[in-house]
Amino acid sequence: MTTHVADGASVDVVMDDIGRRARAAARSLSIASTAAKDAALAAMAVEIRATTPEILIANALDVADGKAKGLSGSFIDRLILTEARIEAMAAGLEAIAALGDPVGRVLAAWDRPNGLHIERVATPLGVIGIIYESRPNVTADAGALCLKSGNAAILRGGSDALRSSVAIVAALRRGLAKAGLPEDAVQLVPVADRTAVGLMLAGLSGNVDVIVPRGGKSLVARVQSDARVPVFSHLEGICHVYVDAAADLAMAEKIVVNAKMRRTGICGAAETLLVDRACAATHLAPLIAALQAKGCEIRASDEVRALVPGCVAASEADWSTEYLDAIITVGLVDGVKGAIDHIEAHGSHHTEAIVTENAETAARFMNEIDSAILLWNASTQFADGGEFGMGAEIGIATGKMHARGPVGVDQLVSFKYRVRGTGQVRP
Amino acid sequence: MTTHVADGASVDVVMDDIGRRARAAARSLSIASTAAKDAALAAMAVEIRATTPEILIANALDVADGKAKGLSGSFIDRLILTEARIEAMAAGLEAIAALGDPVGRVLAAWDRPNGLHIERVATPLGVIGIIYESRPNVTADAGALCLKSGNAAILRGGSDALRSSVAIVAALRRGLAKAGLPEDAVQLVPVADRTAVGLMLAGLSGNVDVIVPRGGKSLVARVQSDARVPVFSHLEGICHVYVDAAADLAMAEKIVVNAKMRRTGICGAAETLLVDRACAATHLAPLIAALQAKGCEIRASDEVRALVPGCVAASEADWSTEYLDAIITVGLVDGVKGAIDHIEAHGSHHTEAIVTENAETAARFMNEIDSAILLWNASTQFADGGEFGMGAEIGIATGKMHARGPVGVDQLVSFKYRVRGTGQVRP
Hints:
Chain A is built from 15 helices and 16 strands. By secondary structure, chain A is an alpha/beta fold.
């Protein structure tokens, strides 16, 4: 594909061509059998493994350039590939092959009094554009999830991982070809130019059906603001844990510590702890101590600070901040009603947890809060497609349309109606 | 509500206020019980009936102005209300009350090996903006469908029906108040100014979740091009009937005539007839004769005209035209593959029918065509939420996201995940 660019074609021409190829591939994929798609995923895994040396060389060049450019350690860590990471990529393709095929599934079926039989059946979305940062593993993951759900993928990865992605996509396409599916089912945007992203967001003349951004807040914000096609995304995960007066304190400690500290950099990490004012005297200090014991910084309301000395004062902005770090904001609320109001005012509609032994209180929390995921007596860090049993996920969405929460293969489909008659006409 | 305008507030201020009120009402509605919503719908029907004289007076003023402005007969026919039409409106509200509540329905539920119990449960979308032409009955219908599905409605009807709509909405809001639900669940944009539409399409500062346009192609095109929020719509219904060589000719005649001529002005009316070249000698002339007998003009390919004299020549544009009139384009194709290719090239992804006795051919047609509704041995005029058994519909959508085909109360919902644990943390 890089020959387009070598030939000196403009970005517009390259991207238009990618869009047209994707649409053509999508039409074939939409009627590809489950067996054909699974065979392709298996062949892609074989090719990834067989190409390990080439992928490692390409990646070493990306990493060397990245280091020379002074990219941060965490950036380099996400960029770097090892034999083990490449094997995990191949195993991921096989795991996606093992999932059920979401396409063709009859979602509902019923008969009408006039004898018409109506079925709502799952169909692919068409062409999915994925815009992500320099994480080479997303290349294989996203391509495979799209293929399994019968969609063509247009991948636009971060420019610092371009050589790695080129090597990975070449392997994926060899697998597709060996299995007799169109290679253009997975295409990589071969240019680092940001114009390409703009063209994808504009929909490539109707040849992109949905965009999935994966990356930091500024990337997602740009996609959400500029896209002219639907977007599956979340801007941030300002996740809350509410500890109710009826909570079991030991359970609450375990959940709060896990929700905040298991991994602080993921979108399901808790950013705010709300404690019921009714149990502040007994529950607040132990919860804060448990967090501090794990190295978490506490930013707290004045009321909390009066009860538990040694906390930093929370600013107004802290209540709406996704730290993605070992920092948490802590405040008191008046029962579940107070928690609901606080979360509706400051949350990001991603994931919230309540700890309580009171089923009614829990039901109210889960019914009234308008977030994608509500948990009762469990950690917010379960906000993940794998943990939900969906297999891999392409991302987590907080919009209300179509896909919400973890977006796995079952969410990467649309539907249509098939109606079977025996000559019925409408009176 | 009109006092805002009388007070001289700008359209921006009025619309912003409407958006905020709608969001507040939506929060109440999202947790309103089924009984409360149904009681409100019943009370709205009572109020509509009780207000019949006032509605008729308001409508008479609209109609008189419309006639003075020289609006067309069909326009006036859609605008005009009678006692019978108002009764039908009230009965429609009761019919919507009788539908199942889509909110709170558990769409899926499963358990994870770690003991977490996960439910996907239907939730309202939030605030729905409906932009429609001067058809007063849409006011009651759309408001009721939104209420049943727990959503707040912002109605922006055609300016020529403004007085009628004001009277109808006043009755609906009295019903809401009597049932103890927020009046702002149904709001009417009280200004004829087109700026209001632009503000709705921009999403009223995040206070509109989805827009549903109901009306002609130019209205829908403007909404699709300008909206910054999701839109449930179809631009046009270029619906096809394909008569296969394995069709029963008598059934094909009945279906083709009904699909085209039962009502020519609806989106599910057929606009193109495709006949299998293999049965042209036997099927083509009778099908054309049957259509002509009902007064249908035939625009045909040269090949068809050579076989059946007396047809007008179809231009290239005819193959992609939604006539909404007693005109049909007729062409020959090579079997179901030819039909699929023609429809993918010229269709609008709305509704297509195949007439055949061959189940394999029918399956191919229904699997390979990417339209919202595919029918086998039945008329395209069944493309309707009522005919699908969904109760009333707010419209028909041809997008691939979220809602597709007839959009009834079951489509006016989103979902969230409720996860029940016993203290699980993520390892």
